[in-house]
Amino acid sequence: MKIILTGSLGNISKPLAQELVQKKHQVTVISSSTDKQKEIEDLGATAAIGSVEDADFLTKTFTGAVAVYCMIPRANYFDPNLDLDAFTRKIGNNYAHAIQKSGVKRVVFLSSIGAHLEQNSGIIQRYNEIETVLKKLEDVSITFMRPTSFFYNLLAYIPMIQSQGIIAANYGTDKMIPWVSPNDIAAAIAEEITTPSQGKKARYVSSDELTGDETARILGEAMGKPDLKWVLISDEETLNGLTNLGMQPKIAQGLVAMYAGLYNGLLSEDYIKNRPVEMGKTKLADYAKEFAAIYNQK
């Protein structure tokens, strides 16, 4: 199969490209960086250098493909000039345009847990908008991958652990957090993108379900800090902490609202109704070794 991947050689797209190439598919990886071209080619894939913000480039690259994987690149949340909603909306619309014009019939889009919500989901609400746009495309089979909380997001708490000896957030403690490994997301995408399908559907991906307290215990044991605690703080405290770090206030508010939705159950209500048939292979105990190694390098 001729398959186009966005996401350059990121945490999901790289293992995804490796698996698809290994299975003898003809893979093209889109990257905005010419520096990535050789590394992409070394994987056995073809590099398409350009931007997902360029609808014409996407259309040209998608044309002739059997399937495409689309994702929204991560933006710089600390950029005071970033309009995250406009950035996301533009790329979502570009994907819709390119899919329609290129005639590709099989699409996998990286969405998010909470994308079923039209409101009260904070920063995740933008994925609901994109899913709505893509659902309007006719004669295209689309799987909306809805991963849960990424393991590597925990890295953001390293400075807090170093300075305060705790993980403090407006979610977690005794409430369940569904965690996921990028490798498990990649494996699920590889399965979906190579499997014939009809219509539009959502598929959740998760690797481990743990409370915040359990998460802190597992990380602490791996780090040699068995007393590491997860502490619940207010939405206001969380917001102040993010903005004090320099995060754009509007984006910080969106993150706080998202985490509040995770804590009160709103964000994960549809996930709980549609849990994955099988959880991913990578557990937090596995990732904790990598986390501890990064912590000890800081």
Write the layout of secondary structure elements.
Layout: E1 2-5, H1 13-22, E2 26-31, H2 37-42, E3 46-49, H3 55-62, E4 67-70, H4 84-102, E5 106-110, H5 125-135, E6 141-147, E7 149-150, H6 158-164, E8 166-169, E9 176-180, H7 182-193, E10 200-205, E11 208-211, H8 212-223, E12 229-232, H9 235-244, H10 249-264, H11 269-273, H12 284-297
Parallel strand pairs: 1-2, 1-4, 2-3, 4-5, 5-6, 6-10, 7-9, 8-12
Antiparallel strand pairs: 9-11
Give the key terms.
single chain, alpha/beta, 7-stranded parallel β-sheet, 12 helices, 44% helix
Distance between the termini: 43 Å
The average pLDDT value, as a whole number, equals 97
**Roughly how much helix do the residues carry, as a percent range?**
40-55%
* Uncertain residue ranges: none
**What is the number of helices?**
12
Classify the secondary structure makeup into a structural class. Answer: alpha/beta
The radius of gyration computed from the alpha-carbon positions, rounded to a whole number of angstroms, is 19 Å
Kindly describe this structure.
The protein has about 300 residues and is of the alpha/beta class. Helices cover about 45% and strands about 20% of the residues. It has 12 helices and 12 strands. The chain has helices spanning about 15-20, 35-40, 55-60, 85-100, 125-135, 160-165, 180-195, 210-225, 235-245, 250-265, 270-275, 285-295; strands spanning about 1-5, 25-30, 45-50, 65-70, 105-110, 140-145, 150, 165-170, 175-180, 200-205, 210, 230. The chain has a 7-stranded parallel β-sheet with strand order 3-2-1-4-5-6-10, with helices on both faces. Strands 7-9-11 form a 3-stranded mixed β-sheet. Helix 4 links the parallel strand 4 and strand 5 (about 105-110). Helix 3 packs parallel to helix 4, helix 4 (about 85-100) packs parallel to helix 5 and helix 9 (about 235-245) runs antiparallel to helix 10 (about 250-265). The chain is globular. The mean pLDDT is about 95.
